[in-house]
Write a structure and sequence with these properties.
Layout (H helix, E strand, L loop, with lengths): L4 H15 L7 H8 L3 H13 L3 E4 L5 E4 L8 H8 L24 H17 L3 H5 L28
Antiparallel strand pairs: 1-2
Helix pairs in contact: 1-3, 1-4, 2-3, 4-5
C-alpha cells in the first residue's frame, strides 16, 4: 500500500511541528525544507487545523504549532483522516466494480485483512514515537532541535 502525497505531507508537517515545539512554524518553512508546493501544503495544513491536530496563529508573527501533545496524536488516525480511500483493487469500489470474479473471489477478503493489519500497526504509533531518538534505526533519531533554515546572505553593494 502506498500513501498519497497528501498523507505524506501531513505526516511530515506533524513531525516537523513536533520537533519544533518551541517556535511557531510557517507553511513556507515546511515547504522549503521538503521541497514541496506551498499551495498543496496549505490544503493539508487546513485539514490538520480542522481536525485540531494543528493550531494556526494568524497575523504578522503567526504560524503553526501542534494542537495536541505528540503522544496524543495517533498515526493511524492521521492516515485514516487524510487518505481518500483504501481501495486496493477494483472490487473495493462498488461504483466501478466490473470484475467477473467478484461474486466468488476470496482476494477481496484477503486484501481487506491486509488493510486492517496495516492500520492496526499504525494505530499503535504516535507522533511522539516517530520523533523519538531511541526508535531510529541508526539509534540517533531525527534531529529534535529546531531545524534552522539557512539562506545565503545578500552581498551589500560596494562591499
Amino acid at each position: 500500500m502506498r500513501l498519497t502525497s497528501y498523507t505524506d505531507y501531513a505526516l511530515r508537517t506533524l513531525m516537523y511541528l513536533g520537533m519544533n515545539r518551541d517556535n511557531l512554524v510557517t507553511i513556507q518553512d515546511i515547504a522549503d525544507l521538503h521541497g514541496i508546493s506551498k499551495n498543496h501544503l496549505m490544503k493539508v495544513v487546513h485539514q490538520l487545523g480542522l481536525s485540531g491536530m494543528v493550531e494556526t496563529v494568524r497575523g504578522r508573527n503567526g504560524g503553526l504549532k501542534l494542537g495536541h501533545e505528540p503522544a496524543d496524536i495517533n498515526i493511524g488516525e492521521v492516515v485514516r483522516n487524510t487518505e481518500t480511500d483504501f481501495f486496493m483493487a477494483e472490487c473495493f469500489d462498488p461504483a466501478s466494480n466490473a470484475c467477473v470474479y467478484a461474486p466468488s473471489c476470496i482476494l477481496k477478503g484477503v486484501l481487506n485483512d491486509a488493510i486492517e493489519a496495516y492500520l492496526a500497526v499504525l494505530n499503535n504509533v504516535t507522533l511522539a514515537d516517530l520523533i523519538a531518538q531511541k526508535n531510529a534505526p541508526d539509534g540517533k533519531g531525527l534531529k529534535t532541535q529546531a531545524i534552522q533554515m539557512h539562506f545565503p546572505e545578500k552581498k551589500k553593494k560596494g562591499a
